[in-house]
Structures are given as structure tokens and as C-alpha cells.
Design goal:
The protein is α+β, with helices and mostly antiparallel strands. Strand 14 and strand 15 form a beta hairpin. The radius of gyration is 19 Å and the shape is globular. The structure holds uridine-diphosphate-2(N-acetylglucosaminyl) butyric acid. The site of uridine-diphosphate-2(N-acetylglucosaminyl) butyric acid has 17 residues, from helix 5 and helix 6.
Length: 293
């Protein structure tokens, strides 16, 4: 099985996540191209092995005892970035770094990328989550994406992906390989101005978001409100369970103070949800994905 492909058995996943938490996966694979990816999917399906797609690991909490099945990373073979300046388009691999894409777009004078500033992770993860900030989301500029399915490669249009606040409706069982992005008019003369604006936004974020290991915002903002505000109003800032803490800088960040377990992070998050529900009758929805729980 998986012959000739870079597949590691029993690989601990903690280093692949920003929480630095999580046990081993049965298999962790780094396909180099579409052919290898298709073969991984075929063989895993034939052998009834569950498949999980790993992005940049920046929005992910993995169980301390790991998870069964095959974890696929596109980081090694799908990180291309091809520019077509005359068309204002970029073709980008799902395994490419999202911060790198953001920076490249700003350098080219594409203002819309200001809204992506500070968002970590991979392009594939950003697409799947429709990542962004209040200033903009990646879904706005997606023309189409190419996905790998058991029946082969397929192209989906922006409409077929159902971009909404921090969510999409990609058909399940598909793996996002590449996206074609089109930007409204570039202005390379604004490069310096945009980079300066991005720098100021980054400083602002630095002052309002914690430095400890985390997966960013733990919960989505409920319609018309902010998870951070609700959690702070329950007086939970700074609350600890083992090595996990509700950040005292931003209440919607559950942080690993160094020695936390994934279990402690989840237990604390569940407690936060309960308290917010009791006080406000709002059930916070997770933004962070949880594997193996
Ligand atoms: N707030 C509090 N207490 C807190 C934190 C925030 O009362 O402890 C209040 C703030 O005063 C503010 C409001 O909540 O009025 C919103 O806070 P903030 O400006 O920090 O933005 P956010 O909605 O919490 C969103 C994204 C972040 C992104 C920032 C900056 C979500 C769930 N989060 O946070 O994204 O960095 O805007 O644009 O949409 C992520 O998704 O992982 C992430 C970090």
C-alpha cells in the first residue's frame, strides 16, 4: 500500500499544528503530485482507511492519542504560485502558505489582500474555511478551484463552493488541490502604501491577540455579536485548566501555556461554551476543527 509515496507511519502530529498538541496518525502522507494523491485516495478507500486532510494546522486541535487513518498533507507537492499579470489572476496550490500568498498579492497592489493580513495556515485551509478578517475574505476573489475526487479531478466554480462566514460547502470526500483567483484591478504603484497598511494592521493584531500557542479564535462570532465579548462578560478571561487558559489578552483564544494537553484545551472550551450558553442563551459554534475526539 502507498508504495513509492512519502508516507510516514505512526507520525506524531503535534509539530504540524500551531497548538503543538496531538498524538500520532497511523499514516501521514506527502503526495508530490495529482497522480500520487489520486493513488493515496484510491488505496485508502479500497482498504477502508479514513482520510483526513491536513492544512497549515493553524485551526486544528488533535486528540492526545492521535487518530486512526491516513492524514494527507499537500505542503510538499502543491505549493505552486503562478501569476498572470495581464489577467489579474493567480493560480495557487492548496499547500502554499497563505501568508506568503497574502504578501505577494499586496506587493502586486491587490488591495483586497489587506483583509487576509495575519491569517496563518495553508491556502487550502483558508479556502475551506473562507478565511479572512472583518476587512475581507478569500472567497471574494475565487474564480474556481480544482478538487480531487474518487472519480478523478473536477473543477468547481465559486458558486458551487458556497462561501459564507468562515465556512464553505465543498462536497465531502473531495480534496482541494488548487485555486484560480482573480483580483479587481491591480495597482503596483500602491505597493508601499499597502505594505505599510498591512504592517500597521499586524501591529494592531499583535497588541490585541496573545503570543502563546493557540489556534486563533476558538469560536465563530455569533450573528451580530462577538465571541470574545460574550466570554469576557462571563468573567472567564485568565481561567485555567491544567496548562490550558482562556487568554487574558483576547477571550476567544484558548491558549496552550506550554504544557497543556489537547484534552485540557477541549475541556476548557466546553466549559466556556456552557457558561456563555447559561448567561446569554447562545451556543457558540467552534471555528477550530477537532480531530479524534
Ligand atoms: N472583545 C472583548 N473581549 C475580548 C476580545 C474581544 O470584549 O477579550 C470585543 C472587542 O472589544 C471587539 C470585538 O470583541 O469589540 C471584536 O474583537 P476583535 O476585534 O479582536 O475581533 P474578533 O471578531 O474577535 C476576528 C477574527 C480574527 C481576526 C480578527 C481581526 C473571527 C472569529 N475572528 O476576531 O480571526 O484576527 O477579527 O480582524 O472572526 C481567527 O479566525 O482565528 C482569527 C484570529
Amino acid at each position: 500500500m502507498f508504495e513509492g509515496i512519502d508516507v510516514r507511519e505512526n507520525e506524531v502530529l503535534a509539530p504540524y499544528t500551531t497548538f503543538k498538541l496531538g498524538g500520532p496518525a497511523d499514516y501521514l502522507a506527502f503526495p508530490k503530485n495529482v497522480a500520487e494523491l489520486q493513488r493515496l485516495l484510491d488505496e485508502a478507500t479500497t482498504n477502508r482507511i479514513p482520510i483526513h486532510l491536513l492544512g497549515g494546522g493553524s485551526n486544528l486541535l488533535i486528540h492526545d492519542s492521535g487518530l486512526r487513518g491516513l492524514v494527507v498533507s499537500l505542503e510538499k507537492g502543491f505549493s505552486h504560485l503562478e501569476l498572470s499579470l495581464e489577467k489579474n489572476e493567480i493560480r495557487v496550490g492548496a499547500g502554499a502558505s497563505f501568508p506568503k500568498l497574502t504578501r505577494r498579492c499586496l506587493e502586486l497592489g491587490w488591495e483586497v489582500a489587506l483583509g487576509w493580513g495575519g491569517v496563518p495556515g495553508s491556502v487550502g485551509g483558508a479556502l475551506k474555511m473562507n478565511a479572512g478578517t472583518r476587512l475581507g475574505e478569500i472567497g471574494e476573489v475565487v474564480l474556481s478551484v480544482e478538487v480531487s475526487t474518487l472519480e478523478g479531478m473536477r473543477v468547481l466554480t465559486q458558486e458551487q463552493m458556497g462561501f459564507a462566514y468562515r465556512s464553505t460547502s465543498f462536497p465531502s470526500g473531495t480534496i482541494l488541490c488548487e485555486a484560480l483567483l482573480r483580483f479587481p484591478g491591480a495597482d503596483p504603484l500602491r505597493k508601499q502604501e499597502l505594505l505599510e497598511k498591512a504592517r500597521l494592521l499586524a501591529l494592531q493584531r499583535k497588541a490585541t491577540q496573545p503570543k502563546e500557542r493557540s489556534a486563533g479564535s476558538m469560536f465563530k462570532n455569533p450573528p451580530g455579536d462577538y465571541a470574545g465579548r460574550l466570554i469576557e462578560s462571563c468573567d472567564l478571561k485568565g481561567l485555567k485548566m491544567g496548562g490550558a487558559a482562556v487568554s487574558s489578552v483576547h477571550a476567544n483564544f484558548i491558549v496552550n501555556e506550554g504544557k497543556a494537553t489537547a484534552f485540557e484545551i477541549l475541556r476548557l472550551s466546553e466549559y466556556v461554551r456552557e457558561r456563555v450558553e447559561q448567561k446569554f442563551d447562545i451556543k457558540l459554534e467552534y471555528e477550530v476543527r477537532r480531530w479524534g475526539f
